[in-house]
Amino acid sequence: MLESSAVSRQAHPNGSEAKSAIGVKRGQPTSGSDSGDKGPSSKRVKMNAGVRMEITETNSTNFLFRKFVNNALDERAAGNNANFELLRRKFSADPGSEDAPSSLELQNTISALINTVSRLNGSCSQLVKDIINCRWVARESGFVGSYVKLLGNLVSAHANYMDLIVNMLVQHLVWVHSSAGKLPNHSPVKRSVIYERVHYALQFILDLVPTAAFSTLFPALISEFPHKSESKRAHVTYVTNLLRVIEYAPSLRNKLLTFITDRVIKIDTEIQADLDDLEDEQGEELEAEIVGAEIERNEDAVANIKDTVDKLDVMLDILFSYYSKSFPNKSVESPTQESIESYGLIMKLFNGIILPTYRSRYTQFLVFWAAQKAPRFSETFCVTAITKALDNTLQPGARQAAAAYVASFIARAKPMPGQYVQISTRVMCRWLGAFVDQRSAECEGPDVSRWGGFYSVCQAVMYIFCFRWKDLREVEEDEFGVIGERWMGFLQNLNKAITSKFNPLKVCSPAVVETFAKIASHFQLVYCFTIIEQNKRKGLGSQGELDSYFPFDPYNLKRSKRWIQCCYNEWEPIEGLEDEEEEDNDSSEGSDNDNESVVEEEVDDDESETHE
Predict the structure, then answer these.
(1) What is the DSSP string of 169-226?
(2) Which residues, 6 or more positions from 535, have their beta carbon under 8 angstroms from its beta carbon?
(3) Please, are residues 477 and 483 in contact by the beta-carbon 8 Å criterion?
(4) pLDDT tens digit string along 145-185?
(5) How far, in Å, CA of 515 to CA of 513, rounded?
(6) Least confident of 191-195, 350-354, 479-483
(7) Residue 115: CB partners within 8 Å, gap ≥ 6?
(8) What does the pLDDT look like over 280-296, one tens digit per residue?
(9) Could you say which of 96, 261, 426, 607 has the lowest number of CB atoms within 10 Å?
(10) How many helices (H) and strands (E) does the chain have?
(11) Crossing angle for the helix pair 141-157 and 103-115, nearest 10 degrees?
């Protein structure tokens, strides 16, 4: 007991007995030394003597601490807990209390524990918990190195401590107050240094026990993710640290990115839900502010939504920045293997999380951005979305979402090659034509609940046409050698769909239908206004209306918008179209108008056959 108490005092650099306990201080002359000899040989002898004294001092200190630790454990086994409790007190004491041990004393104690770690079984669990919960991150780097080594030895010798240690480390990856890096008589430790120390410890443990990445670390990381109500800095800090974990635990990359994306998209959809919950006028004002306008209202609900938008903005910016390391700055014909693997992961996230999520607003722009890094990526995205849109084994909602995605992507992807626009539109148009040929006999009129997949594809093609009509023309030379342009032949299938009994103009989004009708009439593709007027006279009825959701509508998050601007195709007014609007509206009122195309005649014939 006296020896252990002496060790406690001797190891403390401020203790009154420090000199006598540790031995002769390095550099202090010893009795019998010739302090007046200045020769080289004498200096060498002095240096060697100093080294020997330092080694002797260190060995003596280590011996004393090892003896104290072993005695405490032996006495504990014999039923005497006094020194064991003193050992515990070293780690559980408040660093600001008078009897708190120094970092040097703790470091020496840890070194002694490392040599007896096999004895720290379940009977010593309270001591181990005290060690795990001590204020270690704010101490000197030498202490941190010894502490991390002890943690590694503990998990290697006693697997049952793995959860406690990993959970403690992960809890240090959340946003911590600056006070976490401050201890009495210690230099402050920056928050960034705290996080690096935690990552160092986690990496050290994973190097020793690689299987802990999946069995212990991943569940711990999931459990500590900030609640959606927590601050922006809490989310930013944790997401940044999760991405840092991937650097030394690459086996967790897919799982962690999937989890992060899932959390981000939940915040994304919550914003839209909150906007919908506000009164119409107030919700519209807030949406206007998000895109750059200003409002005067300062209600709590509005403030909370704005905070959530800001949180989403920064988190997406972090994800864009992370993925950007795997992709080129501009589109390339031959992407690297790293780019291919990263895009494969993003597509997996698209299929598993983003596509099934109803009305997310911004998260999907990760795939929009990544798909434009190589033509083959754009092709993969279009093929994936079109395949789902045309798959009648899928639920109507899934098909409608897929059609909306392919339409919005082709319309908005700025560097999209014209041939991809043509190929994608041709596939959908031919499907529409075949569908009309095969299923018209079953149709008794427009019905979204029954023909939702068909209407989704119709709406997708109309939407694409509004943005990409230039890419849907081809050059031709007539018999006189005159070179001109004409619409690609597969667009006749769109005409067939529009004039069929399915009547897509009645159930597709009114905004899409109206815009398409104006542009198609302007370029003399098809005249739709007669059908539109007939539909208006008949009223909406019970056939329903198709959702007008287009996932790549303008991106308005202020910070992360920088990743999208260079690859985003903004809507451009068509020259001369506005001047014709009044004339077209007037002409649509008469059934025998001279400007009506052959398509209108086909509609009348088709309707007469239906009545028969």
Answers:
(1) HHHTTS---GGGG--TTS----HHHHHHHHHHHHHHHHHH-TTHIIIIIHHHHHHTSP
(2) 503, 505, 506
(3) yes
(4) 999 999 999 999 999 999 999 999 999 999 999 899 999 98
(5) 6
(6) 479-483
(7) 66
(8) 545 555 566 655 544 44
(9) 96
(10) 27, 2
(11) 30
User: CB under 8 Å to 72, separation ≥6 — which residues?
Assistant: 4, 83, 84, 86, 87
HSE on the CB side for 96, CA within 13 Å? 3
Which range, of 12-26, 61-75, 518-532, 538-552, averages the lowest pLDDT?
Answer: 12-26
Query: In angstroms, rounded to a whole number, what is the distance separating the alpha carbons of residues 110 and 143?
Result: 9
CB 413 within 8 A of CB 372: yes
Residue 197 CB neighbour total at 10 angstroms: 23
CB atoms under 10 Å from CB of 463, counted, come to: 25
Residue 474 forms beta bridges with which residues?
486
| Token pair recorded at residue 84 | 């064991």
Report the alpha-carbon distance of residue 275 to residue 306 in Å, rounded. 10
Contact 240, 251 (CB under 8 A): no
- Burial (CB < 10 A; 0-12, 13-18, 19+), residue 364, is buried
More confident residue, 127 or 272: 127
461, burial (CB in 10 Å: exposed 0-12, middle 13-18, buried 19+): buried
SS3 302: helix
Q: Are 199 and 281 in contact (CB under 8 A)?
A: no
Buried b (16+ CB within 10 A) or exposed e, 46-59: beeeeeebeeebee
Q: Which has the higher per-residue pLDDT, 126 or 292? A: 126
> How many Å apart are CA 258 and CA 252, to the nearest integer?
10
Please give the pLDDT value at position 483.
72
Burial grade of 363 (CB within 10 A; 0-12, 13-18, 19 or more): buried
Nearest to 112 by CA among 63, 184, 41, 60: 63
Strand partners of residue 542: none
Determine the Cα–Cα distance for residues 20 and 552; give it in Å rounded to an integer: 76
> What DSSP letter does each residue of 120-141 carry, written as one string?
-SGGGHHHHHHHHTS--TTS-H
Residue of 159, 61, 155, 148 whose CA lies nearest to 112: 61
Give pLDDT tens digits for 436-468.
Answer: 999 999 998 899 999 999 999 999 999 999 999
Q: Are strands 483-487 and 473-477 parallel, antiparallel or unpaired?
A: antiparallel
This prediction has a pTM of 0.81
Q: What percent of the chain has pLDDT over 70?
A: 79
Rounded Cα distance, 532 and 526, in Å: 12
